[in-house]
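User: I'm curious whether this sequence folds into something compact or stays loose and floppy. Could you predict its structure so I can see for myself?
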Amino acid sequence: MKKNRKYILSLRKYRKWHRYLGLFLATFLLISAITGLLLGWKKDANWIQPPTQKGESKDMTTWKPMHEIAAISQSALIQYDSSQAKNKIHRMDARPSKGIVKVLFKKGNWEVQIDATSGEIKSIDKRYSDWIESLHDGSIIGDQFKLISMNVLGIGLTILGITGFWLWYGPKLIRSMKRKGIKL
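Assistant: Here's the prediction. I'll summarize afterward.
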């Protein structure tokens, strides 16, 4: 009889844990879910990430040196928007299969796509996918926050799964015991 009472008390305890943990994690889950959906669509939604253009040649031996590509992209961005004169290059993504180099800048989510062979500017546009990704994984606040928040989210989801299972299975077990005539 004490064992059966234990099931009922644990259900109450798990229900409380499940509710409060769920409320706490709901904000993180909502942000992660929405940004995850957006990241899933980044190649198909041009406002999230500009489509990758194609260059003249896939043969990297014909490509301009990276320092020239960097200079061309900075000059093109300044001509496009003069307020970007002090914007520094964050990274350069070479796409050999497309013959293109994507130059990403630190501020303003700017991306300049350059034909790696001719140096022709193929695209200058905003790229929000990196910002969305940093919001998605928590690194927008900092790497330490990212580490903590992702661990809290993972452990929290595991606990929610376990308590949710017990909240589903526990009442079934108790009803089964009552049907068999076991007193609670």
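Summary: The chain has four helices and four strands. Residues 2-39+138-179 form one domain.
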